[in-house]
Design brief:
- The protein is mainly alpha-helical.
- The chain has a single domain, classed as Orthogonal Bundle (Helix Hairpins).
- It is built from three helices and no strands.
- Helix 2 packs antiparallel against helix 3.
- The longest helix has 24 residues.
Length: 68
C-alpha cells in the first residue's frame, strides 16, 4: 500500500487494516515454513505495510488527542 492511501483511512479503518495485515503475515509465515511460499519477498512487503499502518495510526491518535 502507498502511504497516501493509508493516510486517507480513518482510525477505525486503520485498526481493521492492521488486523488484516497481521493475519496475512501469519498465513504467509505458515506457507513459508512449509515451503509453499513462492516469493519470500512478500513477507517483507507485508511487514513494511504493517509498520506504515502502525506509524500513521499513532500519528492520527496523537494528533486527535486519543493516544493511550
Amino acid at each position: 500500500m502507498k502511504t497516501k492511501e493509508i493516510r486517507d483511512l480513518s482510525v477505525a479503518e486503520l485498526q481493521q487494516k492492521n488486523k488484516e495485515l497481521m493475519e496475512e503475515l501469519f498465513r504467509l509465515r505458515l506457507r513459508h515454513s512449509s515451503g509453499q511460499l513462492e516469493s519470500p519477498a512478500t513477507l517483507g512487503q507485508i511487514r513494511r505495510d504493517i509498520a506504515r499502518v502502525k506509524t500513521i495510526l499513532v500519528e492520527k491518535e496523537v494528533g486527535s488527542g486519543t493516544a493511550k
